[in-house]
Design a protein that fits this description.
It catalyses: a UDP-3-O-[(3R)-3-hydroxyacyl]-alpha-D-glucosamine + a (3R)-hydroxyacyl-[ACP] = a UDP-2-N,3-O-bis[(3R)-3-hydroxyacyl]-alpha-D-glucosamine + holo-[ACP] + H(+). Pfam families: Hexapep, LpxD. Catalyzes the N-acylation of UDP-3-O-acylglucosamine using 3-hydroxyacyl-ACP as the acyl donor. Is involved in the biosynthesis of lipid A, a phosphorylated glycolipid that anchors the lipopolysaccharide to the outer membrane of the cell. Belongs to the transferase hexapeptide repeat family. LpxD subfamily. The structure is a single chain. Strands 8-11-14-17-20-25-28-31-34-37-39-40 form a twelve-stranded mixed beta sheet. The protein is built from four helices and 40 strands. It has two domains: 93 residues, 3-Layer(aba) Sandwich (Udp-n-acetylmuramoylalanyl-d-glutamate--2,6- Diaminopimelate Ligase, Chain: A, domain 1), CATH 3.40.1390; 216 residues, UDP N-Acetylglucosamine Acyltransferase, domain 1 (3 Solenoid), CATH 2.160.10.10. The protein is flat and about 90 Å long. 35% of the residues are buried. Helix content is 15%, strand content 29%. The longest helix is centred in the C-terminal third of the chain and has 18 residues. The chain is of the alpha/beta class and 342 residues long.
Length: 342
C-alpha cells in the first residue's frame, strides 16, 4: 500500500512542507529511514537525524523549524508521537480489512456467522458455532463445536479454539494460541497408574481480551476457566483449569498459573512467574519477574523472589543473601577460635 504526503496529512489533520505528492509504502526509525519510508520526530534527542535521514516523509511537531538543509518532506502536526500512533492504528485497520471466505475451508451446516466475516483458507468451523460481525479468522484456524465468538474479534493463523469456548467482543487471539484444551487432571489408582479425570467445563473470555502467541488456556474440570474483561496476556503463558483472572490484569511471557487460582483486578505479573494452585491473589498486586507465588496475596502487595516476599523484605534480605559466603566464613573463623581456646 502506498500513501502520498497529502493523504497522510489529511488523515492526521497536518500541514505538508515539501512535496505533497511524494509516496511512502513502509515505516522506519528516523535514523534508519530510506527512500519510500515514513518516519517521525518526537524526541529532541533524535533531532540530529532529521538532517541525515533518507526517509521520504517525516512527521514533526508544528513548532519544529529546521536549522540546516533537509531532504525529507515534513508533515507538521500538534503532537508528532500521537499522530504517528494514530497513523499506525489506521495502517493496521487498512491491512486487516479483509473479508470473504477463502477456499478450501470447512463450515458446518449448523454454524452461523455475522456480516463482514473473513475466513482464511484451511480454516474449520464446527457444529453450532456462532460468530458475530466483523470477525477476522486467518488461515489455518480451528473453531470447535458450540463455540461462540462476539463482534470485532481477530484470530490469527493457527489459533485453535476447542469446543464450548465463549469469546467476547473486541478480542485478539494470536497465532498458536490454544483455548479450551483439557486441564491437567489425573487421579492415581491402586496400581500406581494415573487415570484421566474428564474435563467437562469450558473457557470464557470476556470483551477486550488479548492473548499472545502460543499461550494456552485450559478448560475447567467443572464450570469455567474465566478471563475477565480487558485482560492482556503475553506470549507463551500457561493458564490451568478453573483459573479466574480479574479485569484489566496484565501478565508477561512464560508465566504459569496452576489450577483453581483466582487472580484479582488490575494486577501486573512479570515474566516467568510461577503461581501455585488453589490460592487467591488480590487486586492491584504487582509481582516481579521470576517470582514464585505459594500463598494467598492481599490487595496492593508488591512481591519478588521465590518463594516470593514483599518487595521491601526481599530487597532487605538480598543484602544478606549476597554476603552469605562472607558471613559463613566469619562464623567458621569464630567457631575455630572457640574450639582452639578450649
Amino acid at each position: 500500500m502506498k500513501f502520498t504526503a497529502s493523504q497522510i496529512a489529511g488523515i492526521l489533520e497536518g500541514d505538508v512542507v515539501g512535496n505533497p505528492d511524494i509516496e511512502v509504502s513502509k515505516l522506519a526509525k528516523i535514523e534508519e529511514g530510506s527512500d519510500g519510508t515514513l518516519t517521525f520526530l518526537a524526541n529532541p534527542k533524535y533531532t540530529q537525524f532529521i538532517y541525515e535521514t533518507k526517509a521520504s516523509i517525516t512527521i514533526v511537531n508544528k513548532d519544529f523549524e529546521p536549522e540546516a538543509k533537509i531532504t525529507t518532506t515534513l508533515i507538521k502536526v500538534d503532537d508528532a508521537y500521537k499522530a504517528f500512533s494514530k497513523l499506525l492504528e489506521y495502517y493496521n485497520q487498512v491491512k486487516m480489512n479483509k473479508s470473504g471466505i477463502e477456499q478450501p475451508t470447512f463450515i458446518s451446516e449448523t454454524a452461523k456467522y455475522g456480516d463482514n466475516l473473513y475466513l482464511g483458507a484451511f480454516s474449520y468451523l464446527g457444529d453450532n458455532v456462532s460468530i458475530g460481525n466483523n470477525v477476522k479468522i486467518f488461515p489455518g484456524c480451528y473453531i470447535g463445536d458450540n463455540v461462540t465468538i462476539g463482534d470485532n474479534v481477530v484470530l490469527f493463523s493457527g489459533a485453535k479454539i476447542y469446543s464450548e469456548t465463549v469469546i467476547g467482543s473486541h478480542c485478539i487471539i494470536n497465532s498458536g494460541v490454544i483455548i479450551g484444551a483439557d486441564g491437567f487432571g489425573f487421579a492415581p489408582n491402586e496400581k500406581g497408574e494415573y487415570n484421566k479425570v474428564p474435563q467437562t467445563g469450558n473457557v470464557i473470555l470476556e470483551d477486550y481480551v488479548d492473548v499472545g502467541a502460543a499461550t494456552t488456556i485450559d478448560r475447567a474440570t467443572l464450570g469455567s476457566t474465566v478471563i475477565r474483561r480487558g485482560v492482556k496476556l503475553d506470549n507463551q503463558i500457561q493458564i490451568a483449569h478453573n483459573v479466574e483472572i480479574g479485569k484489566n490484569t496484565v501478565i508477561a511471557a512464560q508465566t504459569g498459573i496452576a489450577g483453581s487460582t483466582k487472580i484479582g483486578e488490575n494486577c501486573q505479573i512479570g515474566g516467568q512467574v510461577g503461581i501455585v494452585g488453589h490460592i487467591t491473589i488480590g487486586n492491584n498486586v504487582k509481582v516481579q519477574a521470576q517470582s514464585g507465588i505459594t500463598r494467598n496475596v492481599k490487595d496492593n502487595e508488591v512481591l519478588q523472589g521465590s518463594p516470593a516476599l514483599t518487595y521491601g523484605d526481599y530487597n532487605k534480605s538480598y543484602v544478606h543473601f549476597k554476603n552469605l559466603p562472607k558471613i559463613v566464613k566469619g562464623l567458621n573463623e569464630i567457631e575455630k577460635k572457640l574450639n582452639d581456646s578450649n
